[in-house]
Amino acid sequence: MVPMASLAALICVGIGVDFSGQTMAEQDLRDQAAQCARQAGEGVAMGAITTSQVVTAAYQCLSAAGLTGNVNFMGTSVSIDVAGTYDTKVLTIISINQLPIHGTATASILQGR
Question: Residue 106: which residues within 8 A CB-CB, separation 6 or more?
């Protein structure tokens, strides 16, 4: 009975550790997506690049960060959607090695400010 209780306690700790780690990794992913969206839109706002180059700039930013995702540019808005995985630390004992993470960010381009 003690080994079963110990395993259950370890799984509970693993859930706490790995789900909080997943949440932190997902926040980092959203922050990176937001940074790339802002960076891609800055050139348009300053007139330095054309709108057709916004998507390329966003993909270059994602690539430099080691991420892959989808970029959409519509009107005055740059949206980036990225996905990845979080490698678990404790839940590997029950064969859960990765948890999915997802991040989306949008930046609006304000011209003439």
Answer: 37, 77, 78, 79, 80
Assess contact for 99 and 90: CB atoms under 8 A: no
CA distance 54 to 80: 11
Model pTM greater than 0.70?
Answer: yes
Chain segment 26-38, per-residue pLDDT in tens = 999 999 999 999 8
Q: Distance between terminal CA atoms of the chain?
A: 68
Beta sheet of 69-74, edge-to-edge order: 69-74, 77-87, 98-108
Query: What would the pLDDT profile of 63-109 be if each residue is shown by its tens digit?
Result: 999 898 999 988 788 899 999 999 999 888 889 999 999 999 998 87
Q: Which residues contact 68 (CB under 8 A, 6 or more apart)?
A: 62, 82
Q: Which of 48, 85, 55, 90 is nearest to 73 (CA)?
A: 55
Q: Pick from 87, 85, 88: which is nearest to 10 by CA?
A: 88
